[in-house]
Design goal:
The protein is an all-alpha fold and 250 residues long. 82% of the residues lie in helices and 0% in strands. The protein contains ten helices and no strands. α2 crosses α5 and α5 packs across α6.
């Protein structure tokens, strides 16, 4: 028995090493492919800016694109885009390597639970990215251009500043859209109950509107409502998932 255990640990470490090597190779290939098609990534990054800029002919007459203030700035942004795009492209294959390594140690019900959490987490995160990219970022850019013009400033933004702005916005909404899983997780560990979440619905809606006032691109009620309504829907989805979590554990 004792002689079998070291052999088992050694085999486990060998599998771990193999999975890490495969993941690194897959990530490198993904980043290489993304760098090769970086023109697509740059086009996707700049699309919200160009679409909003077209609505301001007086500004677009003076500002056709973003500025770079250092010789290496565009290349560094290109590398960051390629890294993020390549890792996103390679992530299904990397996650498969992790799953192949970890799954044998899990019970069937644990495998199903982790698989569902991963799928839902990916779904909600992707939804947050899409919501931020197609709705919130354009609204924010439009508000900020108006704000600059109100003070007679010409919005000549840099590529680095714009990149950081867009990526931060997308990450914020990607994480915020994980709200249903957070609520279901709190119920699963006994911190809350579905009945309590339902009872706190009114308080949650008020808190969501307060949060929307901070993350919405402008202070007008319409924009804040546009941001708040999906979060309220996600809260309701979280209550539904928490009922499922309680049902599965019972």
């Amino acid at each position: 028995m004792s002689s079998d255990r070291p052999r088992y640990i050694t085999e486990h470490l060998v599998e771990l090493r193999k999975g890490l090597i495969h993941s690194l190779v897959i990530a490198a290939v993904g980043v290489g492919l993304a760098f090769w098609r970086s023109d697509w990534l740059f086009a996707a990054l700049l699309k919200p800016f160009k679409d909003v800029l077209a609505k301001f002919p007086d500004v677009s007459h003076h500002v056709q694109t973003l500025q770079t203030l250092a010789p290496i700035e565009a290349f560094m942004i290109n590398m960051k885009l390629a890294t993020m795009g390549g890792l996103a492209l390679a992530s299904p294959f990397i996650l498969r390597e992790i799953w192949v390594f970890a799954a044998p140690a899990l019970k069937p019900n644990e495998r199903f639970g982790i698989f569902m959490v991963f799928c839902l987490g990916l779904f909600f995160f992707s939804g947050g990215l899409a919501f931020g990219y197609y709705l919130v970022v354009p609204l924010a850019l439009q508000f900020l251009i108006h704000y600059n013009l109100d003070y007679n400033f010409l919005p000549q933004w840099t590529l680095q500043g714009y990149f950081s702005f867009v990526v931060n916005f997308l990450l914020i909404f990607g994480l915020v859209f994980e709200l249903p899983l957070v609520l279901a997780g709190l119920v699963s560990i006994g911190v809350a109950t579905p009945a309590y979440l339902s009872h706190m619905r009114k308080h949650a809606i008020i808190a969501i509107f307060i949060l929307s006032a901070f993350i919405a691109p402008s202070a007008d009620p319409i924009t804040q409502t546009i941001v708040a309504v999906p979060l309220i829907v996600l809260y309701e989805v979280g209550i539904w998932l928490s009922y499922l979590a309680v049902h599965k554990s019972s």
